[in-house]
Amino acid sequence: MKYPNSNKHFQKEALHDTSRRGMSLESEINRSNQYYLDNDLANIHKKPTPITIVNVDYPSRNAAKITEAYFKIPSTTDYNGIYKGKYIDFEAKECQSKTAFPFTSIHPHQIKHLQSVIKHGAVAFLIMRMTHYGRDYLIRADEFLAFYFSGKRKSLPYSWIQEHGYPITFKLLIPCDYLKAVDEAFNL
């Protein structure tokens, strides 16, 4: 019997086109981080966004619902933790554009934070999902910042991302296996 999956080209295309349906980058990173933690590979977590709760609706004792809240302060980056004795700090972004990642997608306080953690020796990077192409890349924060501050453009071209980024592979148990890209990008 000949199944469609027996064709290698079909397998590759199927994985590329459908593997991420219904999953956001953040949920894939969270699943990957749980795998890393469960297998004692790394301890990396999503940072909670600091909010001030203003109003809560209590329709019943066990069904409290926040109805109004405000951000306390601008958050820094999305994730931090420890891997191979190194402090890890990164931001995750999804980009719909076919041609470039717009710098308006990253906030000035996040730029400042990345500069600070790099200064203090962190392994800092961005994980960028180019949704049109179904591809994820690790971008070293120092290289990203150099381009950002060069003033050449108001976006990071996709061609630059392909050339300077480190591809991140998709696996069933580790949907965003970025630690391999970290090892390669930072020689860990």
Word description of this protein:
With 188 residues, this protein is α+β, with helices and mostly antiparallel strands. It has a single domain, classed as Trna Endonuclease, Chain: A, domain 1 (3-Layer(aba) Sandwich), CATH 3.40.1350.10. Helix content is 34%, strand content 30%. It is built from six helices and ten strands; from the N terminus they run H-H-E-E-E-E-E-E-H-E-E-H-E-H-E-H. The chain has helices at 8-18, 25-38, 108-119, 141-150, 158-164, 178-186, and strands spanning 43-46, 51-57, 65-71, 79-83, 86-95, 100-102, 123-130, 135-140, 155-157, 166-168. Strands 1-4-5-7-8-10 form a six-stranded mixed sheet, sandwiched between helices. Strands 2-3 form a two-stranded antiparallel sheet. The chain starts with 7 loop residues before the first helix and ends with a helix. Mean pLDDT is 85; it is low at 1-22.
Could you outline the blueprint of secondary structure elements for this entry?
Layout: H1 8-18, H2 25-38, E1 43-46, E2 51-57, E3 65-71, E4 79-83, E5 86-95, E6 100-102, H3 108-119, E7 123-130, E8 135-140, H4 141-150, E9 155-157, H5 158-164, E10 166-168, H6 178-186
Parallel strand pairs: 5-7
Antiparallel strand pairs: 1-4, 2-3, 4-5, 6-9, 7-8, 8-10
